């Protein structure tokens, strides 16, 4: 399967996808912040990439279609996608989110879980729909919140769990697409 990845930040999940999804090929990574870590990782890994503003979804669609992308993975894409992109790739866009959905949709979810006194949080891979962080859940991974955790330590623990579940979710979606 040909994968397209969309990033806004460091690109650690992007690199994890490239390194772990050996039977698939990441053919294009689109990022929306000049100089972000994801761009540096793409250069290091030899993956074609381009910087496109989030609002230029028609260009994003054209680039992914030109590259023959079968599945788009939002791996730290910190913008809401519109129906334009969703409809161009129906049931072929997935997102990794740092909470156990349906709890804590949107931003600042790790701090919100800690503030609420949760003892467990985690991450979710879900299909992208028009409603924010509300598409069908593909898989989840739990992470305990320890009494001495900070937002930084808990973020890191959740990222490690993301590295485990995202490749599994891609395999699941790949199977769904092929049947």
Write a structural description:
The structure is a single chain. The chain is α/β, with parallel strands linked by helices and 179 residues long. It has one domain: Formyl transferase, N-terminal domain (Rossmann fold, 3-Layer(aba) Sandwich). 39% of the residues lie in helices and 23% in strands. It contains six helices and seven strands. The protein has helices spanning 12-20, 37-45, 57-66, 83-88, 109-115, 151-178; strands at residues 2-7, 25-31, 49-51, 71-74, 93-97, 120-127, 137-144. Strands 3-2-1-4-5-6-7 form a seven-stranded mixed β-sheet, with helices on both faces.
Labels describing this entry:
single chain; 179 residues; alpha/beta; Rossmann fold; 7-stranded mixed beta sheet; 6 helices; 7 strands; globular
Distance between the first and last residues' Cα: 13 Å
**Which H/E pattern describes the elements?**
EHEHEHEHEHEEH
CATH top level class name: Alpha Beta
Largest sheet: 7 strands, mixed
Helix content: 25-40%
Q: Which blocks of ≥5 consecutive residues have pLDDT under 50?
A: none
- What fraction of the residues are assigned to beta strands by DSSP? 15-25%
Name of the CATH architecture: 3-Layer(aba) Sandwich
Strand neighbour order, sheet with most strands: 3-2-1-4-5-6-7
Domains counted in the coordinates: how many? Answer: 1
* Shape estimate: globular
CATH superfamily label: Formyl transferase, N-terminal domain
